[in-house]
Please model this.
Amino acid sequence: MRTAAAPAAALPERPYRPRAIAAFHALCAKLETRGVRIARLREEELLRDARARTGLHDFGDECFREPLRVLIDSIEREARLHPVGRLITRARLLSALCTRLRVQEYVRRHPQVLALELAPPVVIAGLQRTGTTMLHRLLASDPGLRPVLAWEGMAPLRGRLVLGADVRRLQGKIGERVLSYMAPAFFAIHPAEADAPEEDVLLLDIAFMSTTPEATMHVPTQAAWLERQDHTAAYEYFALLLRILAHQGPVSRDRVAGSGPVRFVLKTPHHLEYLDVLRKVFPGVRVVQTHRDPARTLASFCSMVWHGRGVFSDEVDAREVGAHWSRKVGRLLDRSMEARGAAADEGFVDVSYYDLVADPVAAIRRLYDALGLPFTPAVEERMKVTRKANPQHKYGAHRYRLEDYGLTSGGVEPLFARYRKRFAVPVEASA
Model:
């Protein structure tokens, strides 16, 4: 469905670029006139480099090859990456391939991990910008629930120690600093802190079957291809990565391994599109869906995408972001309602963003009751500490408007009307 046109965007003409990065780009432009291509993306070259870096050769099931090939082709033809964006993208693809090699070696050495039992996870699967990050961090402060931290999501297999710390954590802190340097406004939108619980879509990235590329780059061909695929294999690999994380043990001293199966608390909007697959791969999963006015969340998320894509490209079209993600959010909602209808809402718990913001402790107490989890005074106290450490606007206020992305509230409303009615979601006043 097309959305109505709106006034010209009020965003900067181009994404923010530090002087040092701009100077490097200018140098790369001169090199490219002499035929020097920065960080080229070639499938066989990436596979060869991953094998050379790890000293391993067996990727196991190579079902990842087609998704990788489609992604590389879409990036090269459509993404318009600047040199640093190409370097970061190549490093991320290479890291994912290295992880796949190491996973195969880990399973060879520890075959018992394949049969490791996990407790049915708690999965927060609300739309972007509906309080999912706050809820996730609060639930993750419960020692009985195991989150995926940002640094281990980027590199799930345990690394060597450097100065007494896991090298993966050090790399995660470097990544946090780089993002803050290249896009300082991004942290006001999403606090991408290396030590914090993060979206488990990072693990789906390793299967090259996630929505991360379309959120960070202009890759419409890959995005359209992804929607036509069966995601079962990707979710099964995702489950294997969770088993490996559980097998490696807790990530901090206050999370002592218990006698029973590990219960993960996960979070990403990606799951809304594939709740049917999630429920098939994780029997008994409990899905927590957060609800907020989708017109407001869309404006906020488009802002996040625009700033995120600016890390990789100098050419970010705000109207293209609005057109792509208004349709995509409509699809997420439609697909989630279809999956919930097929399941007769079994295994789902709804949380209002407005209730969560007004009184987090009361909202979570009701959530724990619905999930059948013990909300003890100790858990409540830990959540209060987490809440105090993560106040709203911790990194500054986030401003956004639908009009900045070529959209209007009237134009997008038909995409959301059925969802709004189904869950009695109110229209939120503009900031």
In short: The first strand starts at residue 122 and ends at 124. Residues 103 and 174 are 24 Å apart (CA to CA).
